[in-house]
């Protein structure tokens, strides 16, 4: 079984087919369990993720019923009860896309440190492709802040790898869009200037520098 939380929550069988998770609360419960990467979560923690500011009158009973529904979909043995009380998704990091992403980024960083930008760029593209939309889309907004920050950091790293290997085709339009979306991101602005210089567009690089100086002043 594979669990996808870098976007709308999904559970996939080994053959790649998607299991029907049903409503938003069932997706939120699975996302909350998968986010913890196989570690136990207390009833209180899960209730905060699933119900937010509108918990049911008997939260433990409601959560127990929701866990029962999830077990019927993904398998009874897939969600273990833990002391506390709490619950744990019986899964390892390789089964959850967030942790596969993080491992790919770590491996890419090692290749970049070893002056192998080709391998780093390939690994980062593969890792970034795991995002199918906003991370942890079925959980309250704060949950997605960290993985979205990780995605941006990986994107900066991928651009750096492309610059180091001289693969500037398409970088200028991409970085122009990124600096529009994230105008105060110094790294993207510096990378845009480098990409323009690498293409011999020195006047445009100077214009980009002046724009960065005004925006970031």
TrEMBL record:
GO terms for biological process: phosphorelay signal transduction system; regulation of DNA-templated transcription. CDD domains: BTAD. Residues 1-91 bind DNA. Residues 1-91 form the OmpR/PhoB-type domain. Signal peptide: none annotated. Keywords: DNA-binding, Transcription, Transcription regulation, Two-component regulatory system. It comes from the Bacteria. InterPro entries: AfsR-DnrI-RedD_regulator, BTAD, OmpR/PhoB-type_DNA-bd, Sig_transdc_resp-reg_C-effctor, TPR-like_helical_dom_sf, WH-like_DNA-bd_sf. GO terms for molecular function: DNA binding. Belongs to the AfsR/DnrI/RedD regulatory family. This is AfsR family transcriptional regulator.
């Amino acid at each position: 079984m594979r669990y996808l939380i870098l976007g709308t929550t999904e559970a996939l069988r080994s053959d790649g087919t998607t299991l029907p998770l049903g409503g938003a609360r069932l997706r939120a419960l699975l996302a909350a369990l998968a986010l913890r990467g196989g570690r136990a979560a207390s009833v209180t923690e899960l209730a905060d993720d699933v119900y937010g500011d509108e918990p049911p009158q008997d939260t433990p009973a409601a959560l127990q019923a929701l866990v029962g529904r999830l077990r019927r979909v993904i398998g009874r043995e897939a969600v273990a009860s833990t002391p506390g009380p709490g619950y744990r998704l019986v899964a390892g990091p390789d089964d959850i896309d967030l942790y596969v992403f993080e491992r790919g980024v770590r491996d890419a960083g090692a290749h970049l440190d070893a002056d192998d930008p080709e391998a780093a760029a390939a690994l980062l593209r593969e890792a970034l492709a795991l995002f199918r939309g906003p991370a942890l889309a079925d959980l309250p907004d704060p949950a997605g802040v960290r993985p979205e920050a990780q995605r941006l950091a990986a994107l900066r790293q991928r651009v750096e790898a492309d610059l180091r290997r001289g693969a500037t085709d398409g970088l200028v339009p991409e970085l122009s869009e990124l600096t529009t979306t994230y105008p105060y991101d110094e790294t993207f602005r510096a990378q845009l200037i480098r990409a323009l210089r690498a293409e011999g567009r020195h006047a445009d690089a100077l214009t980009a520098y002046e724009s960065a100086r005004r925006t970031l002043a």
